[in-house]
């Protein structure tokens, strides 16, 4: 057992394939290591475990209902690693906003798991990490796809296809700008909205879903060949489809328009929509910085820049 230990994780964004993945189409997901979660664990100075974070301070038992997944995860970690029930001081520092489709809950869980295993000096393989992360995610999201848990522990893009995950080799060189609308997204509401649209206009909506799947297939080629302009065009077409599915919003459309005006080759919503974040693609750093500044001046709550080369190694 160490005196102090840490664990870390990062955000993720769905690059292409949101909503169509629900209907067995492929999706490409990018990790965003520029947006991090850090967890530090040490012995508590008081006779009980305590959690410190920007959104909660108190004992694990006092965690609010919306964090029941995290509460259960800590119980399971205690049962497996802390049989003597040594009181712990757990500090969570997260750069990932809640409810924006960036994998906040899975990233926090992953960082805590890594911190626990480091503190108690136990080996941690990927299967064990994902098993524990699933404990939290199953409570928080009910029946998750596993996309978040898979990507927040990876440093490479992930392909989700036929309900299976695989590393997806990217050769894109450029920059991905991620902007937060400041509005929480709700996956269940957005998925239900698309389901209702499908019930009301089956032929049209199935054509859109099929087209979104085709765009992912095309993007496999452009991403693998460092065709950033081709990839940007695919992003723009995907956004048109998502808008027809009625999961966009005026806030999303505003940030996308600004991104394109300031030089992005492509921009779209990421995640479930109806809020959350947008992503914009550019080949040049100075353009990414200009886009970021313009977005912040026009209502974005947060903006990050992810270097794509970092995901290619």
From TrEMBL:
BP-aspect Gene Ontology terms: isopentenyl diphosphate biosynthetic process, mevalonate pathway
Compartments it resides in: Cytoplasm
The enzyme's E.C. designation: 2.7.1.36
Lipid biosynthesis listed as a keyword: yes
GO molecular function, one term: mevalonate kinase activity
Domain GHMP kinase N-terminal: residue ranges: 78-148
Keyword field contains Kinase: yes
Enzyme class label: transferase
Annotated pathway: Isoprenoid biosynthesis; isopentenyl diphosphate biosynthesis via mevalonate pathway; isopentenyl diphosphate from (R)-mevalonate: step 1/3
Keywords, in A-Z order: ATP-binding, Cytoplasm, Kinase, Lipid biosynthesis, Lipid metabolism, Magnesium, Nucleotide-binding, Transferase
GO cellular component, one term: cytosol
InterPro entries linked: GHMP_kinase_C_dom (IPR013750), GHMP_kinase_C_sf (IPR036554), GHMP_kinase_N_dom (IPR006204), GHMP_knse_ATP-bd_CS (IPR006203), Mev_gal_kin (IPR006205), Ribosomal_Su5_D2-typ_SF (IPR020568), Ribsml_uS5_D2-typ_fold_subgr (IPR014721)
Residue span(s) of domain GHMP kinase C-terminal: 226-299
Entry similarity comment: Belongs to the GHMP kinase family. Mevalonate kinase subfamily.
Name this polypeptide is given: mevalonate kinase
Species per Swiss-Prot/TrEMBL record: Fructilactobacillus lindneri DSM 20690 = JCM 11027
